[in-house]
Every structure is written in structure tokens, then in C-alpha cells.
Amino acid sequence: MSEQPASRSPVSRLVSSSDGASAVEFAMIAPIFIALMLHILQCGLLFVAERVLQNATDSASRKILTGQVQSNQVSESQFKSAVCAKLYNIFDCSAVYVDVNAYSSFSGSSYNQPMLTYDSQGNVNNTWSFNPGQDGKVVIVRVIYRWRVFGGPLTYAIPNTANGYHLMMGVAALRVEPYS
């Protein structure tokens, strides 16, 4: 007569069972993996957006460099439209700020990131200049945009303003060519 194996206790069966181990391991790793993927996506989008903003700034600034803006008496809104035309609908054009200033020399110019001021609803209420200069003047073009950072556990380092936005800026420094 063959002897029956001793039946194991329910606790020992539970400890030695490997059913569902993969699901438990995935549940432990998935949140970290998803957070990391969202952070990589956010950083990639931010990088692309900053490049698009800088390219739009360079393209529109070329019209100041060659005197087209000055000769055709282009207004601030027309210049902003030229910038927005190069932003490929990635940005909300109503939230793009354009600041154009003329200086007598590069050493006297300012191209630092501006300090934004806000009204009670959280809207930017800075006053921006539009002075494309004349022949031989140094012109600094700054195109500013507040990029909304979407949430996630790893996005704490991306916003550079107090209200969860990343302030990005395209800058072009140029000397206006003789055009008259």
C-alpha cells in the first residue's frame, strides 16, 4: 500500500505558490515605469517646443535684420502674427509675448529672462516694447511663452515659475543692416 503524502498546511501552500507573481511584480513596477515614461514625454515635448519657439523667433527677426519691418512699417500685431505663423499650432498665440528693443550697442543691450507680473486672475500683465530700430542699431527680439506643465511625480523640476508653468524664451540679437 502506498503512503499518501502528508497534506501541507494552507499557509505553506500560500507561501510556496507562484500563481500571480507576475501580476504582483508588475503592480509594483508599473507606477514607476509609467511616471518615468510621462516625464520623458514631457521633457521631449518641452525640448521640441523650445526649438520651435527659437526657430520662429529667428525667422521673424530676420525681417528686422534686413529692414523689411521698418520699411513696410510693420506693426507689433503684424510682427507677432509673423512669429505665430511659424509656431505650427503648438502654442496658443494669444499667450505669446513679443518684446523688441533697439540699443546703440550690444554691451548696452538686455536679453535676460523677464520678470513676469500677474493680475488677480493670474494673467500676465507686463508691458512689452516694439522698437525695431533703424540702420546700424542693435535689436534684441524676445519671444516669451508660458508652457503649461502637466502633472506627474517626476515633473517637480520642470516648472520654473511659481504657478506650475515653464517660462520659455526665444531670443535673437542682431544689428540692423543698412536698408534705406
Automatic annotation (TrEMBL):
The chain crosses the membrane at residues 26-49. Residues 20-62 form the TadE-like domain. Keywords: Membrane, Transmembrane, Transmembrane helix. It comes from the Bacteria. InterPro entries: TadE-like_dom (IPR012495). This is Pilus assembly protein. The lineage of its organism: Bacteria, Pseudomonadati, Pseudomonadota, Alphaproteobacteria, Hyphomicrobiales.
